[in-house]
């Protein structure tokens, strides 16, 4: 069988700097991992004058099922290393924005391998239900039968939580004091995480906004953390990670750093996200999801 070379129209979106190439799943892409690896490359990948960055953090293949009310979107995220992630908080917000643009609906159901997530779109702002974060060893998953709470893993004190995908969260004094690219790979591949883990740093922003100028205006707006995440599948730090932001709030609550059901602001390098982690109920993730451009790409890429 010969593969037909073709062109596909794609769009580029980002959620607080976590950027994705979006492809309608009806398009025939013969080799999704090769497509993702090629076009996500930060030096040689998809490039456009309307976009601040070459490449992307992943390719979202989205299948719109508009016959349902609310409309549904089956989301498959193929990462730059060719792997498929079970969940992506910012990707799911982008999926909702993409489907809202096509259907005019402001409520959508996003079907992911980690479960169905309800999204509400309000202009550029998208809120998505993220499920209940789990510290249970089987859910994270961990290669042991006890939870991993504030323990040393490869030199970093972390708490393990699953927010759709596994995160090892380290609460530190200042996220900028950690050389993430150096310390994260050993944690990400540690034996205790049989499926690997995303590595997320969190630091509390003082009420007076000392470690973050944005906090000055928001000092009375509830708890505020800064976040940095080294992502499995990207194998590097991203500008934002939605499951990581929820993980920061869930771990902060678990460690007693915050209480109650108030909204937590989590600020990765790419912007601000609003999180809730109510007891026994689905967490929520809210923030902007923005379209950058549309482009045409070859469906078949030369393997390198
Ligand atoms: N950036 C995504 C996470 C992708 C998950 C992935 N890196 C993995 O667990 O393999 C987010 O906004 O939640």
TrEMBL record:
It catalyses: (2S,6S)-2,6-diaminopimelate = meso-2,6-diaminopimelate. This is Diaminopimelate epimerase. The record marks 167, 231 as: Could be important to modulate the pK values of the two catalytic cysteine residues. GO terms for biological process: lysine biosynthetic process via diaminopimelate. GO terms for cellular component: cytoplasm. Catalyzes the stereoinversion of LL-2,6-diaminopimelate (L,L-DAP) to meso-diaminopimelate (meso-DAP), a precursor of L-lysine. Pfam families: DAP_epimerase (PF01678). Residues 266-304 are annotated as: Disordered. It is an enzyme of class 5 (isomerase). The active site is at 88 (proton donor), 241 (proton acceptor). Keywords: Amino-acid biosynthesis, Cytoplasm, Isomerase, Lysine biosynthesis. Its EC number is 5.1.1.7. One of its GO terms (molecular function) is diaminopimelate epimerase activity. Substrate binds at residues 18, 79, 89-90, 198, 231-232, 242-243. Belongs to the diaminopimelate epimerase family. The gene is dapF. Transmembrane segments: none annotated. It is found in: Cytoplasm. Homodimer. Pathway: Amino-acid biosynthesis; L-lysine biosynthesis via DAP pathway; DL-2,6-diaminopimelate from LL-2,6-diaminopimelate: step 1/1. It comes from the Archaea.
């Amino acid at each position: 069988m010969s593969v037909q070379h073709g062109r596909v129209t794609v769009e580029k979106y980002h959620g607080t700097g976590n950027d994705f190439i979006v492809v309608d799943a009806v398009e025939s892409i013969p080799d999704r991992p090769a497509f993702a690896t090629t076009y996500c490359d930060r030096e040689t990948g998809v490039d456009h004058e309307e976009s601040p960055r070459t490449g992307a953090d992943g390719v979202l293949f989205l299948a719109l099922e508009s016959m349902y009310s609310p409309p549904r979107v089956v989301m498959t995220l193929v990462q730059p290393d060719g792997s498929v992630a079970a969940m992506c908080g910012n990707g799911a917000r982008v999926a909702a924005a993409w489907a809202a643009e096509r259907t005019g609906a402001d409520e959508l159901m996003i079907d992911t391998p980690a479960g169905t997530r309800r999204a509400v779109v309000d202009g550029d702002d998208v809120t998505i239900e993220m499920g209940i974060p789990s510290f249970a060893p089987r859910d994270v998953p961990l290669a042991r039968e006890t939870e991993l709470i504030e323990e040393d893993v490869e030199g970093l004190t972390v708490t393990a939580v699953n927010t759709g995908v596994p995160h090892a969260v380290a609460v530190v004094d200042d996220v900028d004091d950690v050389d993430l690219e150096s310390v994260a790979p050993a944690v990400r591949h540690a034996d205790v995480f049989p499926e690997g883990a995303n590595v997320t740093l969190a630091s509390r922003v003082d009420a007076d906004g000392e470690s973050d100028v944005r906090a000055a205006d928001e000092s009375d707006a509830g708890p505020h953390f800064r976040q940095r995440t080294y992502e499995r599948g990207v194998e590097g730090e991203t500008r934002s990670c939605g499951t990581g932001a929820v993980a920061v709030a869930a771990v902060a609550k678990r460690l007693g750093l915050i209480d109650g059901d108030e909204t937590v602001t989590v600020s990765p390098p790419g912007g601000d996200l609003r999180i809730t982690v109510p007891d026994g109920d689905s967490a929520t993730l809210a923030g902007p999801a923005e379209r950058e451009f549309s482009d045409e790409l070859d469906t078949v890429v030369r393997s390198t």
